[in-house]
Amino acid sequence: MSEERWRSLGFREDATTFQSQSQNARVWTENWVKDSLFCPSCGSSSLDKYPNNRPVADFICKECDENYELKSQKTNFGRRVNDGAYRTMTERLAARDNPNLILMNYDRDALAVTNLIVVPKHFFVPEIIEPRKPLAATARRAGWQGCNILIGDVPEAGKIWIVRNGIVSSREEIVESWQRTLFLRDGSIAARGWLIEVMKCVERIGLPEFSLEDVYAFETTLRQVYPSNFNIRPKIRQQLQVLRDQGYLHFLGSGRYRLAQVQ
């Protein structure tokens, strides 16, 4: 794929085949991903589309076997993103073929991508899967229970911007951002959950350098997430050590840290 094709954000108008605008939009957005987007994980030049109605994913990279699910809409995504069945979603969290999530905003009039974010699957933990109310007994699928993905609860490190307000990020920057948090896949889902929560606390401090006491300030918040844990401060220290060992943080001594990407 040429750099020119990748940086083109416009849809192919010749893909208009339906009277329904929502169906046309699905074709436009899927074709754009297939024709123009590279794999954010390995930088491979293309993603292949799965056959329609595959229950888990929409695209696959033949180079690294990463799967991707695409969700697109005209308006910006809020804190919640509707997904499928709650039980299916929770069961697939640890599965090898659990897809990464691509969120696309597009301009209907300009027929072009405006924003594109990818959320790597290693940020998907039970804490961000919210069950919806089961369908009523009178519904055609009575008792079926969907879920929401709480994108607002994903740390910023887990929202990799590919296109922001029409500005395209470099391929190198995207792959580097992906690789920076890949260590999260090494542990269990429970271990990932704690690391992600501490990463969120570090981000909320809002400074490139911070102290252990700054993270301790979130003790009450973490206790609300993990009410059965009565050793929050030791757990914070443990997670900071893991983040340091994985190169996400630099330890400066005397209880001070710096985010690794900050020079």
Number of strands: 13
How is the biggest beta sheet arranged? 7 strands, mixed
Task: Tell me the Rg in angstroms.
Answer: 20 Å
Mean pLDDT: 91
Quote the CATH topology of the largest domain: PvuII Endonuclease, Chain A
Any low-confidence stretches, pLDDT <50, length ≥5?
Answer: none
Helix proportion range: 25-40%
How many distinct folded domains? Answer: 2
Shape designation: globular
**Strand coverage percent:** 15-25%
Note the total helix count: 8
What structural class results from the helix and strand content?
alpha+beta
Output the keywords.
single chain; 263 residues; alpha+beta; PvuII Endonuclease, Chain A; Arc Repressor Mutant, subunit A; 2 domains; 3-stranded antiparallel sheet
Layout: helices, strands, pairs:
Elements: H1 3-7, H2 21-36, E1 48-49, E2 59-60, E3 67-73, E4 80-85, H3 86-92, E5 100-107, E6 112-119, E7 129-131, E8 146-150, E9 160-164, E10 167-168, H4 171-180, H5 189-205, E11 209-211, H6 212-216, H7 219-225, H8 232-245, E12 249-253, E13 256-259
Parallel strand pairs: 3-5
Antiparallel strand pairs: 1-2, 2-3, 4-8, 5-6, 6-9, 7-8, 9-10, 11-13, 12-13
